Amino acid sequence: MAEQPTSTAPPSSPKKELSRNQKIRDFLIGFIGWWVINGAIWAGIATGDFGPQRSVFLLFPNIFILPVNLLALIILAFVRRWVALGLLTAYAVNFLLALIMGLFFNGVCWIPFYIQ
Length: 116
What we know:
Blueprint: H1 20-47, H2 54-79, H3 81-105
Helix pairs in contact: 1-2, 1-3, 2-3
């Protein structure tokens, strides 16, 4: 009878299933956390006094914030699924708000100048 090779790796424990409350908590962490963190970054940039180099400092959020957010979304999708889902929902709500605001505020462009 042939011997079976023994594995030296410890047996993997099954993934612990999250309860409903833990899923809701993780979702809210992602959803509210996205608004708080990005709002704080943009508020800090908007209120900061950078002097004559202001345009150079405003390049940072325009270039790096979106890739950092997307990277966080990808990493969280593998690590904490419900936090990533909250983050994705925050993106969707932000996009929907931008579309609605665009309907109302950009519509002013179509009003003839002599009526304004």
